[in-house]
Design brief:
One of its GO terms (molecular function) is transferase activity. Keywords: Transferase. This is Cell wall biosynthesis glycosyltransferase. Helix content is about 35%, strand content about 25%. With about 150 residues, it is α/β, with parallel strands linked by helices. The protein has a single domain (about 1-145), classed as Spore Coat Polysaccharide Biosynthesis Protein SpsA, Chain A. The chain has a seven-stranded mixed beta sheet, with helices on both faces. Strand 1, helix 1 and strand 2 (about 30-35) form a beta-alpha-beta unit. The longest helix is centred in the N-terminal third of the chain and has 14 residues, at about 15-30. The radius of gyration is 14 Å and the shape is globular.
Amino acid sequence: MLTVIIDARADAERLPALLAQLTAGAVDGLVKQVAIVAAADQPGIDLLCEDMGADAFPSLEAAAVAARGERLLVVPAELRLRDGWIGALEAHLAAGGAPALVEGLGKGGLFVRPPCGVLVERDRLKGRRGADLQRLRRELGLRPRRIG
């Protein structure tokens, strides 16, 4: 059971496209819960959560505490998943599901990397006040690995 936590504090307008991609994972049984981290004053988040069956939280830590899955996929709202992401993620989880960096689609380059998410055990995110994706990635020592 996987909980996806989407950090939409910086880019909420790109959220619907990612939620549409996650629907396939929910139908497949991989994604059991979606949590959206958003500022309280972000317009439309409550309505979007209601429409998509997601829950809204003010921080990554609060979302992790409420997560029902033992594994969390923490992603930015601008992430776009690669074709075959469900099978790749299921295979990774079946092989033990070690913490990993999940690279999304996007234009990379010398100084620009595609958006990335982090796959991590729920307990490793709890208690991390003020956590963000970049800090979490550094603290876990994750290197790019294409999963999905």
